[in-house]
# Entry
Amino acid sequence: MILMAIAFSLSFATSPATGQPPGKTEKLEIVASVGCLKETTPDSWTLDQATDPVPSNANAPPPKDIASMPKSGKNQFQLLGVSVFNLPAHRGHTVLIKGLHIKAAPMSRLNVTSVTMVAPACEPAGK
# Structure
């Protein structure tokens, strides 16, 4: 019994995702990014043509801040935790997404904390 407990605790000595000891995890930060909201498959959403993520807080921004933000970029993010937001109402819109930035390959992810419509249509690609 004791050997099983030791083997179990040793299995958590390093994180399989990063190979780092526990407590040495990468800090996740809340960021904001503006882009085109797309549904890739039912209930699977991405932010396409997205701006570079910038540090932010979790709350939706005031309207005056939205006007000065760039409307598109070259990034793409998979969106997580979206079930509490009415994303179908914003499909094909330019939106500001705030959330936890999870850097990953082949596509980084945003665990969404707020969604704010910026424009009722997306910017043309390559603009």
Summary: The first helix runs from residue 2 to 10.
